Amino acid sequence: MLRGEAEKDGRRFLAGAVLTTERENRSDLWISVSAGVVIAMQVVALAWVVSSTWFKQDDFVVLFRTTSAGGFPGSMLTVHGGHLVPGIVSVFWVLRSLFGMQWWAFVAVIAASQAVCSYLTWRVLKSFFRSRPISVLLLVIYSASVLTVSANMIAMSAIQYLPMQLAFPATLLLLQRYSRHPSFRTAVVTIAPVLIATLFFEKALTVVPFVVILCVITPLTKSSAATCRGRLRELRTPLAMLVAVTVAYAIFFPVFTGGSKGQAHFTFDAVAKFDLGPFLKNLVPSFFGGPGQFDSSGSISAPSDFEARASFIAFSALFVWSMIRCWKSIKYWALLLAMAGGNLVLIALANRTWVENMTRYMSDLVFPLVLLVGLAVLGNSNDENDGYSPIVRKVLQRSKALGLVLIVVAGIFVVAHSGNSQSAMVAGMKFAPGKSYAETARRTTETLDDAPMLLSQGVPPKVVSGAFWGTSNLNTTRVVLLPAGLNVRFGSVVENPFMVLNDGSVVPARFDRISRPISTGAGCLNVQEMTTTTLKLVSSPIIWGWYGRVRYTSTRESKVALMWSGPNTVIDLESGSHTIYFPITGGGNALTIGLDDSGVCLQEIEFLRLRADQ
User: Fold this and answer.
1) pTM of this structure
2) Cβ neighbours of residue 485 closer than 8 Å, sequence gap 6 or more
Protein backbone atom coordinates (compact mmCIF):
# COMPACT_ATOMS: atom_id res chain seq x y z
CA MET A 1 0.00 0.00 0.00
CA LEU A 2 2.75 2.42 1.00
CA ARG A 3 4.67 1.60 -2.17
CA GLY A 4 1.56 2.14 -4.31
CA GLU A 5 0.82 5.47 -2.63
CA ALA A 6 4.42 6.54 -3.13
CA GLU A 7 4.21 5.70 -6.81
CA LYS A 8 0.97 7.69 -7.13
CA ASP A 9 2.57 10.67 -5.35
CA GLY A 10 5.56 10.39 -7.69
CA ARG A 11 3.32 10.34 -10.75
CA ARG A 12 1.35 13.32 -9.47
CA PHE A 13 4.60 15.22 -8.82
CA LEU A 14 5.90 14.46 -12.31
CA ALA A 15 2.57 15.42 -13.85
CA GLY A 16 2.60 18.68 -11.89
CA ALA A 17 6.17 19.37 -12.99
CA VAL A 18 5.30 18.70 -16.63
CA LEU A 19 2.21 20.92 -16.35
CA THR A 20 4.30 23.71 -14.78
CA THR A 21 6.90 23.41 -17.51
CA GLU A 22 4.23 23.52 -20.21
CA ARG A 23 2.66 26.56 -18.56
CA GLU A 24 6.05 28.31 -18.35
CA ASN A 25 6.77 27.46 -21.98
CA ARG A 26 3.43 28.91 -23.04
CA SER A 27 4.10 32.00 -20.94
CA ASP A 28 7.57 32.43 -22.49
CA LEU A 29 6.06 32.04 -25.94
CA TRP A 30 3.45 34.72 -25.30
CA ILE A 31 6.06 37.03 -23.82
CA SER A 32 8.32 36.54 -26.86
CA VAL A 33 5.41 37.11 -29.23
CA SER A 34 4.44 40.28 -27.34
CA ALA A 35 8.02 41.58 -27.56
CA GLY A 36 8.11 40.77 -31.26
CA VAL A 37 4.86 42.65 -31.82
CA VAL A 38 6.21 45.69 -29.96
CA ILE A 39 9.39 45.73 -32.08
CA ALA A 40 7.45 45.19 -35.32
CA MET A 41 5.02 48.01 -34.49
CA GLN A 42 7.91 50.33 -33.63
CA VAL A 43 9.78 49.60 -36.87
CA VAL A 44 6.68 49.89 -39.07
CA ALA A 45 5.66 53.18 -37.41
CA LEU A 46 9.21 54.53 -37.68
CA ALA A 47 9.50 53.57 -41.37
CA TRP A 48 6.14 55.22 -42.10
CA VAL A 49 7.05 58.40 -40.21
CA VAL A 50 10.55 58.77 -41.68
CA SER A 51 9.36 57.97 -45.20
CA SER A 52 7.15 61.08 -45.06
CA THR A 53 10.17 63.39 -45.07
CA TRP A 54 13.37 63.75 -47.14
CA PHE A 55 16.96 64.93 -46.84
CA LYS A 56 17.47 68.08 -44.81
CA GLN A 57 20.05 70.10 -42.86
CA ASP A 58 23.31 68.12 -42.35
CA ASP A 59 22.24 65.52 -44.91
CA PHE A 60 23.01 67.88 -47.77
CA VAL A 61 26.49 68.65 -46.44
CA VAL A 62 27.43 64.97 -46.12
CA LEU A 63 26.00 64.15 -49.55
CA PHE A 64 27.93 67.09 -50.99
CA ARG A 65 31.18 65.81 -49.51
CA THR A 66 30.72 62.48 -51.28
CA THR A 67 30.31 64.22 -54.64
CA SER A 68 32.42 67.39 -54.54
CA ALA A 69 36.14 67.74 -55.32
CA GLY A 70 37.99 64.92 -53.57
CA GLY A 71 34.77 62.98 -53.35
CA PHE A 72 35.06 59.56 -51.80
CA PRO A 73 37.16 58.26 -50.10
CA GLY A 74 38.93 61.63 -49.87
CA SER A 75 36.11 63.13 -47.80
CA MET A 76 35.94 60.26 -45.30
CA LEU A 77 38.37 61.84 -42.87
CA THR A 78 37.13 65.42 -43.12
CA VAL A 79 35.86 66.94 -39.89
CA HIS A 80 32.15 67.76 -39.86
CA GLY A 81 31.02 70.17 -37.17
CA GLY A 82 33.82 69.01 -34.88
CA HIS A 83 33.07 65.32 -35.52
CA LEU A 84 35.22 62.78 -37.35
CA VAL A 85 32.59 60.62 -39.06
CA PRO A 86 34.06 58.33 -41.75
CA GLY A 87 31.29 55.80 -41.12
CA ILE A 88 28.54 58.30 -41.92
CA VAL A 89 30.27 59.53 -45.09
CA SER A 90 30.81 55.91 -46.20
CA VAL A 91 27.15 54.94 -45.71
CA PHE A 92 25.97 58.05 -47.56
CA TRP A 93 28.40 57.38 -50.42
CA VAL A 94 27.32 53.73 -50.76
CA LEU A 95 23.59 54.51 -50.69
CA ARG A 96 23.89 57.45 -53.05
CA SER A 97 26.09 55.45 -55.45
CA LEU A 98 23.62 52.57 -55.54
CA PHE A 99 20.30 54.41 -55.33
CA GLY A 100 20.99 58.07 -56.10
CA MET A 101 18.86 60.48 -54.09
CA GLN A 102 16.20 57.82 -53.43
CA TRP A 103 15.01 58.46 -49.87
CA TRP A 104 13.52 54.97 -49.44
CA ALA A 105 17.04 53.44 -49.30
CA PHE A 106 17.92 55.62 -46.31
CA VAL A 107 14.55 54.84 -44.70
CA ALA A 108 15.26 51.11 -45.06
CA VAL A 109 18.69 51.46 -43.40
CA ILE A 110 17.27 53.53 -40.54
CA ALA A 111 14.32 51.19 -39.91
CA ALA A 112 16.46 48.03 -40.14
CA SER A 113 19.09 49.48 -37.79
CA GLN A 114 16.43 50.44 -35.27
CA ALA A 115 14.97 46.91 -35.47
CA VAL A 116 18.38 45.45 -34.59
CA CYS A 117 18.81 47.93 -31.71
CA SER A 118 15.37 47.06 -30.31
CA TYR A 119 15.95 43.31 -30.63
CA LEU A 120 19.29 43.53 -28.80
CA THR A 121 17.67 45.72 -26.17
CA TRP A 122 15.02 43.05 -25.62
CA ARG A 123 17.75 40.40 -25.26
CA VAL A 124 19.42 42.50 -22.55
CA LEU A 125 16.15 43.23 -20.72
CA LYS A 126 15.23 39.55 -20.71
CA SER A 127 18.68 38.61 -19.38
CA PHE A 128 18.29 40.95 -16.38
CA PHE A 129 14.53 40.74 -15.69
CA ARG A 130 13.61 37.30 -17.11
CA SER A 131 10.83 36.62 -19.59
CA ARG A 132 7.84 38.28 -17.92
CA PRO A 133 5.29 41.02 -18.67
CA ILE A 134 7.22 43.75 -16.84
CA SER A 135 10.14 43.18 -19.22
CA VAL A 136 7.83 43.83 -22.16
CA LEU A 137 6.69 47.08 -20.50
CA LEU A 138 10.32 48.24 -20.34
CA LEU A 139 10.67 47.38 -24.02
CA VAL A 140 7.54 49.43 -24.75
CA ILE A 141 9.06 52.40 -22.89
CA TYR A 142 12.26 52.08 -24.93
CA SER A 143 10.45 51.61 -28.25
CA ALA A 144 8.06 54.50 -27.69
CA SER A 145 10.79 57.01 -26.88
CA VAL A 146 10.22 60.34 -28.59
CA LEU A 147 13.94 61.10 -28.32
CA THR A 148 14.84 58.16 -30.56
CA VAL A 149 12.26 59.09 -33.19
CA SER A 150 13.40 62.73 -33.30
CA ALA A 151 16.99 61.61 -33.86
CA ASN A 152 15.89 59.30 -36.70
CA MET A 153 14.00 61.97 -38.64
CA ILE A 154 17.19 63.37 -40.23
CA ALA A 155 19.37 60.84 -42.06
CA MET A 156 22.72 62.02 -40.74
CA SER A 157 21.44 62.20 -37.17
CA ALA A 158 19.97 58.69 -37.42
CA ILE A 159 23.11 57.15 -38.94
CA GLN A 160 25.17 58.96 -36.30
CA TYR A 161 23.20 57.88 -33.22
CA LEU A 162 21.93 54.39 -34.18
CA PRO A 163 25.38 52.70 -34.08
CA MET A 164 25.81 54.04 -30.55
CA GLN A 165 22.35 52.76 -29.57
CA LEU A 166 23.38 49.39 -30.97
CA ALA A 167 26.78 49.44 -29.21
CA PHE A 168 25.21 49.68 -25.72
CA PRO A 169 23.24 46.40 -25.70
CA ALA A 170 25.63 44.57 -28.06
CA THR A 171 28.59 45.17 -25.74
CA LEU A 172 26.63 43.95 -22.72
CA LEU A 173 25.48 40.81 -24.53
CA LEU A 174 29.06 40.03 -25.63
CA LEU A 175 30.30 40.55 -22.07
CA GLN A 176 27.60 38.16 -20.84
CA ARG A 177 28.74 35.63 -23.42
CA TYR A 178 32.35 36.03 -22.29
CA SER A 179 31.26 35.58 -18.67
CA ARG A 180 29.70 32.20 -19.55
CA HIS A 181 32.33 31.04 -22.08
CA PRO A 182 35.55 33.03 -21.64
CA SER A 183 37.91 33.01 -24.62
CA PHE A 184 40.34 35.45 -26.15
CA ARG A 185 38.36 35.48 -29.40
CA THR A 186 35.17 36.52 -27.59
CA ALA A 187 37.13 39.22 -25.73
CA VAL A 188 38.39 40.66 -29.03
CA VAL A 189 34.90 40.61 -30.56
CA THR A 190 33.56 42.46 -27.49
CA ILE A 191 35.33 45.67 -28.50
CA ALA A 192 33.89 45.59 -32.05
CA PRO A 193 30.53 47.38 -31.37
CA VAL A 194 32.19 50.36 -29.67
CA LEU A 195 35.04 50.49 -32.18
CA ILE A 196 32.61 50.50 -35.12
CA ALA A 197 30.30 53.03 -33.45
CA THR A 198 33.20 55.49 -33.01
CA LEU A 199 33.49 55.64 -36.80
CA PHE A 200 30.03 57.21 -36.76
CA PHE A 201 30.28 59.28 -33.57
CA GLU A 202 33.21 59.63 -31.16
CA LYS A 203 30.68 59.95 -28.34
CA ALA A 204 30.27 56.16 -28.59
CA LEU A 205 33.29 55.93 -26.28
CA THR A 206 30.94 56.83 -23.41
CA VAL A 207 29.61 53.27 -23.71
CA VAL A 208 32.85 51.98 -22.18
CA PRO A 209 32.71 53.64 -18.73
CA PHE A 210 29.02 52.67 -18.54
CA VAL A 211 29.61 48.95 -19.09
CA VAL A 212 32.73 48.92 -16.88
CA ILE A 213 30.86 50.48 -13.95
CA LEU A 214 27.82 48.27 -14.54
CA CYS A 215 30.07 45.20 -14.38
CA VAL A 216 31.40 46.46 -11.05
CA ILE A 217 28.07 47.20 -9.36
CA THR A 218 26.00 44.20 -10.50
CA PRO A 219 26.46 40.70 -11.96
CA LEU A 220 25.73 40.34 -15.67
CA THR A 221 24.80 36.65 -15.42
CA LYS A 222 23.81 34.16 -12.77
CA SER A 223 27.26 32.60 -13.02
CA SER A 224 29.05 35.93 -12.40
CA ALA A 225 31.10 36.34 -9.25
CA ALA A 226 29.31 37.72 -6.21
CA THR A 227 31.85 40.46 -5.44
CA CYS A 228 32.95 43.53 -7.41
CA ARG A 229 36.56 42.37 -7.39
CA GLY A 230 35.59 38.91 -8.54
CA ARG A 231 33.55 40.25 -11.48
CA LEU A 232 36.38 42.53 -12.56
CA ARG A 233 38.79 39.59 -12.38
CA GLU A 234 36.45 37.47 -14.53
CA LEU A 235 36.01 40.16 -17.17
CA ARG A 236 39.47 41.74 -16.97
CA THR A 237 40.51 40.84 -20.54
CA PRO A 238 37.56 42.36 -22.50
CA LEU A 239 37.28 45.31 -20.10
CA ALA A 240 41.00 46.06 -20.44
CA MET A 241 40.64 45.98 -24.22
CA LEU A 242 37.66 48.34 -24.09
CA VAL A 243 39.56 50.79 -21.89
CA ALA A 244 42.61 50.58 -24.19
CA VAL A 245 40.44 51.39 -27.22
CA THR A 246 38.97 54.37 -25.39
CA VAL A 247 42.36 55.78 -24.37
CA ALA A 248 43.83 55.21 -27.84
CA TYR A 249 40.99 56.99 -29.60
CA ALA A 250 40.94 59.79 -27.03
CA ILE A 251 44.59 60.45 -27.97
CA PHE A 252 44.11 59.97 -31.72
CA PHE A 253 41.06 62.19 -32.15
CA PRO A 254 42.43 65.60 -31.02
CA VAL A 255 45.75 64.92 -32.77
CA PHE A 256 44.07 64.10 -36.08
CA THR A 257 41.47 66.85 -35.98
CA GLY A 258 43.77 69.54 -34.54
CA GLY A 259 43.78 72.69 -36.66
CA SER A 260 40.71 71.65 -38.62
CA LYS A 261 38.21 74.39 -39.44
CA GLY A 262 35.47 72.22 -38.00
CA GLN A 263 37.34 71.37 -34.81
CA ALA A 264 35.35 71.73 -31.63
CA HIS A 265 36.94 74.23 -29.25
CA PHE A 266 36.61 72.96 -25.70
CA THR A 267 36.86 75.73 -23.14
CA PHE A 268 36.21 75.46 -19.44
CA ASP A 269 34.43 78.80 -19.59
CA ALA A 270 31.73 76.92 -21.48
CA VAL A 271 31.02 74.88 -18.32
CA ALA A 272 29.19 77.97 -17.10
CA LYS A 273 26.57 77.05 -19.69
CA PHE A 274 25.92 73.73 -17.93
CA ASP A 275 22.17 73.24 -17.96
CA LEU A 276 19.91 70.55 -16.49
CA GLY A 277 17.22 71.38 -19.03
CA PRO A 278 17.92 68.45 -21.40
CA PHE A 279 17.75 66.04 -18.45
CA LEU A 280 14.63 67.42 -16.78
CA LYS A 281 12.70 68.47 -19.89
CA ASN A 282 13.71 65.75 -22.34
CA LEU A 283 15.22 62.63 -20.78
CA VAL A 284 12.97 62.28 -17.74
CA PRO A 285 9.70 62.85 -19.70
CA SER A 286 10.88 60.36 -22.34
CA PHE A 287 10.44 57.55 -19.79
CA PHE A 288 6.69 58.28 -19.83
CA GLY A 289 6.25 58.89 -23.57
CA GLY A 290 7.04 62.62 -23.64
CA PRO A 291 7.91 65.41 -24.04
CA GLY A 292 4.58 66.22 -25.54
CA GLN A 293 5.01 69.53 -27.33
CA PHE A 294 7.17 70.56 -30.28
CA ASP A 295 7.60 73.79 -32.14
CA SER A 296 7.06 74.34 -35.86
CA SER A 297 10.46 72.83 -36.83
CA GLY A 298 9.52 69.62 -35.03
CA SER A 299 13.05 68.93 -33.84
CA ILE A 300 12.88 71.19 -30.79
CA SER A 301 10.93 70.15 -27.74
CA ALA A 302 9.11 72.54 -25.48
CA PRO A 303 7.32 70.49 -22.81
CA SER A 304 4.75 72.29 -20.74
CA ASP A 305 5.61 73.12 -17.16
CA PHE A 306 2.89 70.71 -16.04
CA GLU A 307 4.38 67.81 -18.00
CA ALA A 308 7.91 68.56 -16.78
CA ARG A 309 6.74 68.67 -13.15
CA ALA A 310 4.52 65.59 -13.49
CA SER A 311 7.32 63.58 -15.08
CA PHE A 312 9.76 64.61 -12.37
CA ILE A 313 7.25 63.67 -9.63
CA ALA A 314 6.61 60.27 -11.23
CA PHE A 315 10.37 59.75 -11.62
CA SER A 316 10.86 60.65 -7.96
CA ALA A 317 8.14 58.15 -6.99
CA LEU A 318 10.06 55.41 -8.81
CA PHE A 319 13.17 56.42 -6.88
CA VAL A 320 11.35 56.24 -3.54
CA TRP A 321 9.87 52.84 -4.45
CA SER A 322 13.32 51.54 -5.38
CA MET A 323 14.72 52.71 -2.01
CA ILE A 324 11.90 50.91 -0.18
CA ARG A 325 12.50 47.82 -2.29
CA CYS A 326 16.23 47.74 -1.59
CA TRP A 327 18.37 50.63 -0.42
CA LYS A 328 21.33 49.29 -2.44
CA SER A 329 19.51 50.25 -5.65
CA ILE A 330 20.94 53.74 -5.11
CA LYS A 331 23.95 52.53 -7.15
CA TYR A 332 21.84 52.34 -10.33
CA TRP A 333 20.51 55.87 -9.87
CA ALA A 334 24.04 57.12 -9.22
CA LEU A 335 25.25 55.58 -12.50
CA LEU A 336 22.29 57.08 -14.40
CA LEU A 337 22.92 60.55 -12.98
CA ALA A 338 26.64 60.22 -13.70
CA MET A 339 25.94 59.35 -17.33
CA ALA A 340 23.43 62.17 -17.76
CA GLY A 341 25.74 64.64 -16.00
CA GLY A 342 28.68 63.58 -18.17
CA ASN A 343 26.52 64.04 -21.25
CA LEU A 344 25.54 67.55 -20.18
CA VAL A 345 29.17 68.46 -19.45
CA LEU A 346 30.22 67.31 -22.94
CA ILE A 347 27.45 69.43 -24.45
CA ALA A 348 28.60 72.46 -22.44
CA LEU A 349 32.31 71.93 -23.23
CA ALA A 350 31.52 71.65 -26.93
CA ASN A 351 29.82 75.05 -26.61
CA ARG A 352 26.64 73.80 -28.25
CA THR A 353 23.75 76.24 -28.25
CA TRP A 354 20.01 75.60 -27.78
CA VAL A 355 20.95 72.37 -26.01
CA GLU A 356 17.97 72.47 -23.69
CA ASN A 357 15.68 71.99 -26.65
CA MET A 358 17.63 69.56 -28.83
CA THR A 359 16.04 66.19 -28.12
CA ARG A 360 18.61 64.17 -30.09
CA TYR A 361 21.41 65.26 -27.75
CA MET A 362 19.96 62.93 -25.11
CA SER A 363 18.69 60.15 -27.39
CA ASP A 364 21.74 57.94 -26.77
CA LEU A 365 20.76 57.73 -23.09
CA VAL A 366 17.38 56.08 -23.72
CA PHE A 367 18.75 52.53 -23.42
CA PRO A 368 20.76 53.20 -20.20
CA LEU A 369 17.74 55.04 -18.79
CA VAL A 370 15.38 52.11 -19.30
CA LEU A 371 17.89 49.51 -18.12
CA LEU A 372 19.05 51.36 -14.99
CA VAL A 373 15.57 52.42 -13.87
CA GLY A 374 14.45 48.82 -14.41
CA LEU A 375 17.34 47.52 -12.30
CA ALA A 376 16.62 50.06 -9.57
CA VAL A 377 12.86 49.44 -9.42
CA LEU A 378 12.73 45.68 -10.16
CA GLY A 379 16.13 44.38 -9.13
CA ASN A 380 18.59 42.23 -11.04
CA SER A 381 17.38 38.64 -11.37
CA ASN A 382 21.04 37.57 -11.71
CA ASP A 383 21.89 38.91 -8.26
CA GLU A 384 20.77 36.77 -5.30
CA ASN A 385 21.41 39.68 -2.93
CA ASP A 386 19.28 42.14 -4.90
CA GLY A 387 16.00 41.13 -3.28
CA TYR A 388 12.84 42.79 -2.01
CA SER A 389 12.34 44.24 1.44
CA PRO A 390 9.62 42.65 3.65
CA ILE A 391 7.40 45.71 3.08
CA VAL A 392 7.57 45.35 -0.69
CA ARG A 393 6.95 41.60 -0.51
CA LYS A 394 3.76 42.26 1.43
CA VAL A 395 2.63 44.92 -1.06
CA LEU A 396 3.31 42.56 -3.96
CA GLN A 397 1.15 39.82 -2.49
CA ARG A 398 -1.61 40.39 -5.00
CA SER A 399 -3.11 38.44 -7.84
CA LYS A 400 -1.10 38.05 -11.02
CA ALA A 401 -4.13 39.22 -12.97
CA LEU A 402 -4.08 42.59 -11.16
CA GLY A 403 -0.37 42.99 -11.83
CA LEU A 404 -0.88 42.21 -15.51
CA VAL A 405 -3.71 44.75 -15.72
CA LEU A 406 -1.49 47.46 -14.19
CA ILE A 407 1.31 46.66 -16.64
CA VAL A 408 -1.08 46.79 -19.61
CA VAL A 409 -2.56 50.11 -18.42
CA ALA A 410 0.94 51.58 -18.00
CA GLY A 411 1.92 50.37 -21.46
CA ILE A 412 -1.20 51.88 -23.04
CA PHE A 413 -0.55 55.21 -21.31
CA VAL A 414 3.06 55.35 -22.53
CA VAL A 415 2.10 54.43 -26.10
CA ALA A 416 -0.80 56.91 -26.16
CA HIS A 417 1.28 59.75 -24.75
CA SER A 418 4.16 58.94 -27.09
CA GLY A 419 1.81 58.78 -30.08
CA ASN A 420 0.41 62.19 -29.22
CA SER A 421 3.91 63.62 -28.77
CA GLN A 422 5.21 62.13 -32.00
CA SER A 423 2.20 63.25 -34.04
CA ALA A 424 2.98 66.83 -33.10
CA MET A 425 6.66 66.30 -33.91
CA VAL A 426 6.02 64.58 -37.23
CA ALA A 427 3.62 67.31 -38.31
CA GLY A 428 6.51 69.76 -38.13
CA MET A 429 9.34 67.56 -39.37
CA LYS A 430 7.73 65.78 -42.30
CA PHE A 431 7.79 69.01 -44.28
CA ALA A 432 10.91 68.68 -46.46
CA PRO A 433 11.02 71.58 -48.95
CA GLY A 434 14.43 70.38 -50.18
CA LYS A 435 12.70 67.62 -52.15
CA SER A 436 10.43 69.92 -54.17
CA TYR A 437 13.33 72.37 -54.53
CA ALA A 438 15.60 69.70 -56.08
CA GLU A 439 12.82 68.16 -58.17
CA THR A 440 11.87 71.55 -59.62
CA ALA A 441 15.53 72.20 -60.46
CA ARG A 442 15.73 68.81 -62.19
CA ARG A 443 12.54 69.41 -64.16
CA THR A 444 13.62 72.85 -65.42
CA THR A 445 17.18 71.79 -66.34
CA GLU A 446 16.12 68.67 -68.24
CA THR A 447 14.50 70.90 -70.88
CA LEU A 448 17.82 72.67 -71.58
CA ASP A 449 20.15 71.37 -74.27
CA ASP A 450 23.34 72.25 -72.41
CA ALA A 451 24.01 72.03 -68.68
CA PRO A 452 23.57 75.59 -67.35
CA MET A 453 26.47 77.13 -65.44
CA LEU A 454 25.22 78.15 -62.00
CA LEU A 455 26.75 80.68 -59.66
CA SER A 456 26.49 79.43 -56.08
CA GLN A 457 23.93 81.41 -54.11
CA GLY A 458 22.22 81.22 -50.77
CA VAL A 459 19.52 78.59 -50.41
CA PRO A 460 16.11 79.80 -49.15
CA PRO A 461 16.07 79.33 -45.36
CA LYS A 462 13.11 76.94 -45.55
CA VAL A 463 15.15 74.43 -47.60
CA VAL A 464 17.64 73.88 -44.78
CA SER A 465 15.26 74.87 -41.95
CA GLY A 466 17.56 77.76 -41.09
CA ALA A 467 20.17 75.40 -39.63
CA PHE A 468 23.06 76.82 -41.65
CA TRP A 469 21.77 80.31 -42.26
CA GLY A 470 24.72 82.66 -41.88
CA THR A 471 27.34 80.05 -42.84
CA SER A 472 27.75 80.70 -46.55
CA ASN A 473 29.88 77.61 -47.15
CA LEU A 474 26.97 75.33 -46.21
CA ASN A 475 23.69 76.97 -47.19
CA THR A 476 24.36 77.23 -50.93
CA THR A 477 22.72 75.87 -54.04
CA ARG A 478 25.94 73.97 -54.76
CA VAL A 479 25.69 72.03 -51.49
CA VAL A 480 22.01 71.20 -52.00
CA LEU A 481 21.82 70.53 -55.75
CA LEU A 482 25.18 69.01 -56.69
CA PRO A 483 24.54 65.63 -54.98
CA ALA A 484 21.22 65.26 -56.85
CA GLY A 485 23.02 64.62 -60.15
CA LEU A 486 21.17 67.36 -62.02
CA ASN A 487 21.92 68.66 -65.50
CA VAL A 488 23.83 71.59 -63.98
CA ARG A 489 27.39 72.78 -63.45
CA PHE A 490 28.71 75.15 -60.84
CA GLY A 491 31.45 77.70 -61.42
CA SER A 492 33.09 80.54 -59.54
CA VAL A 493 33.67 82.51 -62.76
CA VAL A 494 30.85 82.41 -65.33
CA GLU A 495 30.16 84.31 -68.59
CA ASN A 496 26.51 83.31 -68.98
CA PRO A 497 25.33 82.75 -65.41
CA PHE A 498 22.15 81.00 -64.33
CA MET A 499 20.48 81.20 -60.94
CA VAL A 500 17.98 79.19 -58.89
CA LEU A 501 14.73 80.82 -57.83
CA ASN A 502 13.17 80.24 -54.41
CA ASP A 503 11.05 77.40 -55.77
CA GLY A 504 14.06 75.67 -57.36
CA SER A 505 13.53 76.83 -60.95
CA VAL A 506 16.81 77.30 -62.85
CA VAL A 507 16.73 80.47 -64.99
CA PRO A 508 19.23 82.91 -66.54
CA ALA A 509 20.62 85.14 -63.81
CA ARG A 510 19.10 88.55 -63.16
CA PHE A 511 20.92 91.18 -61.13
CA ASP A 512 20.29 94.38 -59.22
CA ARG A 513 23.15 96.88 -59.04
CA ILE A 514 24.62 97.78 -55.66
CA SER A 515 27.36 99.97 -57.16
CA ARG A 516 27.66 102.20 -60.18
CA PRO A 517 29.83 100.73 -62.97
CA ILE A 518 33.48 101.81 -62.69
CA SER A 519 34.73 102.71 -66.15
CA THR A 520 37.29 104.99 -67.78
CA GLY A 521 36.01 104.88 -71.33
CA ALA A 522 38.69 103.46 -73.59
CA GLY A 523 41.32 103.32 -70.84
CA CYS A 524 42.12 100.55 -68.32
CA LEU A 525 41.21 100.55 -64.62
CA ASN A 526 44.38 98.74 -63.66
CA VAL A 527 47.03 101.30 -64.59
CA GLN A 528 49.64 101.56 -61.88
CA GLU A 529 48.25 104.73 -60.29
CA MET A 530 44.76 103.18 -60.03
CA THR A 531 45.38 100.00 -58.04
CA THR A 532 42.84 101.33 -55.54
CA THR A 533 39.57 102.79 -56.75
CA THR A 534 36.49 104.21 -55.09
CA LEU A 535 33.08 102.63 -55.56
CA LYS A 536 29.94 104.71 -55.85
CA LEU A 537 27.36 102.56 -54.13
CA VAL A 538 23.71 102.46 -55.10
CA SER A 539 22.92 101.16 -51.58
CA SER A 540 24.92 100.35 -48.48
CA PRO A 541 25.60 96.62 -48.71
CA ILE A 542 26.24 94.36 -45.77
CA ILE A 543 29.10 91.88 -45.76
CA TRP A 544 27.43 88.94 -47.43
CA GLY A 545 27.41 87.05 -50.72
CA TRP A 546 27.47 89.61 -53.52
CA TYR A 547 28.55 89.21 -57.13
CA GLY A 548 30.92 91.14 -59.36
CA ARG A 549 30.91 91.81 -63.10
CA VAL A 550 34.18 92.50 -64.88
CA ARG A 551 34.64 93.40 -68.55
CA TYR A 552 38.24 92.91 -69.68
CA THR A 553 40.62 92.19 -72.54
CA SER A 554 43.68 90.00 -72.05
CA THR A 555 46.46 88.83 -74.34
CA ARG A 556 47.09 85.70 -72.31
CA GLU A 557 45.75 83.67 -69.37
CA SER A 558 46.20 85.58 -66.16
CA LYS A 559 44.81 86.27 -62.69
CA VAL A 560 43.31 89.27 -60.96
CA ALA A 561 42.80 89.73 -57.21
CA LEU A 562 40.02 91.98 -55.97
CA MET A 563 39.66 92.98 -52.32
CA TRP A 564 36.48 94.74 -51.25
CA SER A 565 37.00 94.92 -47.47
CA GLY A 566 36.61 91.13 -47.31
CA PRO A 567 39.18 88.45 -48.22
CA ASN A 568 40.88 88.52 -51.61
CA THR A 569 38.83 87.14 -54.48
CA VAL A 570 41.22 85.67 -57.05
CA ILE A 571 39.79 85.24 -60.55
CA ASP A 572 41.26 83.34 -63.49
CA LEU A 573 41.19 85.37 -66.71
CA GLU A 574 41.15 83.79 -70.16
CA SER A 575 42.79 85.38 -73.19
CA GLY A 576 40.55 87.54 -75.39
CA SER A 577 37.67 89.90 -74.62
CA HIS A 578 35.19 88.68 -72.00
CA THR A 579 32.54 89.79 -69.52
CA ILE A 580 32.51 87.55 -66.46
CA TYR A 581 30.47 87.22 -63.25
CA PHE A 582 31.82 85.92 -59.93
CA PRO A 583 30.88 85.81 -56.22
CA ILE A 584 32.66 88.20 -53.88
CA THR A 585 32.47 88.94 -50.15
CA GLY A 586 32.88 92.45 -48.86
CA GLY A 587 31.37 95.88 -48.36
CA GLY A 588 32.31 99.52 -48.26
CA ASN A 589 33.53 101.94 -50.89
CA ALA A 590 37.19 100.96 -51.40
CA LEU A 591 38.22 98.40 -53.99
CA THR A 592 41.81 97.14 -54.33
CA ILE A 593 42.90 95.61 -57.64
CA GLY A 594 45.93 93.34 -58.00
CA LEU A 595 47.23 91.88 -61.28
CA ASP A 596 50.08 89.51 -62.05
CA ASP A 597 50.28 90.41 -65.75
CA SER A 598 50.52 93.70 -67.65
CA GLY A 599 48.77 92.20 -70.66
CA VAL A 600 45.33 92.61 -69.05
CA CYS A 601 43.05 95.60 -69.41
CA LEU A 602 40.16 95.82 -66.95
CA GLN A 603 37.61 98.00 -68.70
CA GLU A 604 34.64 97.95 -66.32
CA ILE A 605 33.76 96.65 -62.85
CA GLU A 606 30.51 96.74 -60.91
CA PHE A 607 28.95 94.84 -58.02
CA LEU A 608 25.55 93.18 -58.15
CA ARG A 609 22.95 91.28 -56.18
CA LEU A 610 21.12 88.27 -57.60
CA ARG A 611 17.44 88.91 -58.03
CA ALA A 612 15.35 85.92 -56.95
CA ASP A 613 12.05 86.92 -58.56
CA GLN A 614 10.45 85.99 -61.86
Assistant:
1) 0.85
2) 100, 101
